[in-house]
Request: fold
Amino acid sequence: MPYQLENRPPDLRESMYFPEIIRGIGTITKHFLKNLFFSRDANPDILARKRGGFGHSDNVTLQYPEERAPYAPAYRGLHRLVPREDGKPRCVACYMCATICPAQCIYIEAAEYPDDPVEKYPAKFVIDELRCIVCGFCVEACPKDAIRMDSGEHTPPSYERSAQIWDEKRLLRGPPVSYQYDPWLRRGSPSIPPDKLEEMRARAKPFPTVATDEASQTPGFSVRALAAEAKDRAQAARK
Amino acid sequence: MNRFFGMLLVIAATLAGLVLLSAGFYLAAGWLGWGFNALTGWISGSPGVSRAAVYYGASVANVVTLLLVVLMISSSLLTVAERKWSALIQNRIGANRIKVFGSALGGIPFLAADALKMLTKERIETTGRTRVLYELAPMLAFAPVFALFAIIPVGQGIELNQIPGLAGAAAAGAVEQIALQVSRTDTGLLYLFAIASLQVYGTALAGWASNNKLALLGGVRASSQMISYEVSLGLSLVGTMIAYRTLRLEEMVVAQGTPVLGPVPALGLLLQPIGFLIFFASAFAETKRAPFDLPEGESEIVGYFVEYSGMKFGLLFLAEFAEIVVLAGVITAVFLGGWHPILFEGWLRQNLTPFWFAAVGAGAFIAKMIVMMWLQLTIRWLLPRFRFDQIQKLCWKLLLPAALVNVFVTGGALLLDPSGQLLAWIGILTIVVIAVLTAAVGRAPAPAAGHGAAHAAAGH
Reply:
């Protein structure tokens, strides 16, 4: 919180320097001794770290390669094309994401399944990760929940720019998702074998109304697990 | 809590190690002194005890143990300590990426990495430099510091036959006492002032011989700053000379062990608190470190050493840390009671052999030195640097008059009461006044974070 300091010349005590310096040494020594004698809380979540009180150092350092701060549930990571249970993309090549993308980094070529007269699929689905501004509009625009940024990963670095052009083969990954309202589940599809269809219907669930449910499906990342951990921590602290 | 007990253990082990180290130093001094005596006796063909031979032999041993071990090791460790301690002050971890068997060992392995880097770096030499002076400057910066440590009385004198293994060597009083002090000169503090004033040549020449405007500016700033502060440095110690009636540092230390007010010993800090503050500030300015680091300034002039690279820069850099060690040694000897372990001193003196009491004393001296080094590094991380005019104003308008007043007050008090009790009371009064001034709240505290404060913020 910035506040205005009165601009006045130093009084006698301040112009003697020594009293103020001794006070400063006291403040610094407090930090020094606390950090010398007490260890860091190992919790990598800096905001949740115990510090400052007696028995804990004031240290805020995160030893990066070994310790990593967990990302927030809303973290927008690398895109993925969400697969169906049968391994095909949920995407129906409607161009919504390519249309809303302010950086125009999504390129889609639509195609039709040879045995299914209704459904389309993306023959090509290319995202130029170098142009992507990570705004997340594509995820918002998608009517089929077919593109997500829930991977919790950064775009991996590469030596060639061409390696940053991600096509549908690399984008299609992560856990499959099925919803009860999915049209291919309700009406069936010739491209899906009947027993597979039954399995997909069995695993389909209602569309989520709570935002955190989606994030909880991120591989390697779970809001529920985090919440449980925080609860455990709080309970341990109360004891 | 594990770290808490570990740290207590480390501190206890360090103290015990210092005592054992000092015992080793005494052994080295005693044995080398006696060996030197035997050697000269064998060469000259006249067996017997020679005062000078024992003294010279002990001095040679002390050069090795005190100058090369205590001074050099601690000043090189300070380069690591500066990083590690500043990290502790600023709530960081500090240098810890070099690991030996999985342990960072408090960052100490960085010492080896630094030395390797300095020694293997490319030497870049400017064409316009004045060759002789350019090469001479790092040596001139380093040598006086080294010479200064020669008169620091790290350990008290004990008789030669009190050292283990030398019981039958020479009767007490037959030869010079063995002390952990390279040179016991009558000139004492005068030698200190003389050598300390040589320090300015290293920096001034480094700036001048580099043929670089910025380096020259750094050198000129260094000269004006160091020459100014030499005046208050000298005057601040005049009070202690009057109080202890001697110039010799070892006699000052002995005098500080005598009780003056009941059981309270006549520490320099007690008799001369103002002298201590002035000496500390002036000597801090002599070390050219923050807040007095005007000779170097990365944002304006780079510094007097801008044209130096590799180990030549390393020597200039190490000289500053060696100055810290020497300053810590002088303050310990003159103001903090030197080798007197203050606490439990009578009990220790009664229950230990003279040899081990001396070793404990020398360990206490080094421990006090470490505290003073820590204090200097703390102040370096506490304060922003002064402006140049503020530096001169602080010296000529504050420190110098205060030092002069201190000299007259000390002289007057001792004239009225030669036992020093009046001086001690004046010292206690001064300390109380400083403590009250420190505790009193000066500036108004920051306004409470509320709506009013938000309105005061710029741009609101």
About this structure: Chain A touches chain B at residues 1-4, 6, 11, 13-25, 28-29, 31-32, 35-40, 55, 57-61, 63 (CB under 8 Å). The mean pLDDT of chain A is 83. The two ends of chain A are 35 Å apart (CA to CA). The first strand of chain A starts at residue 80 and ends at 81.
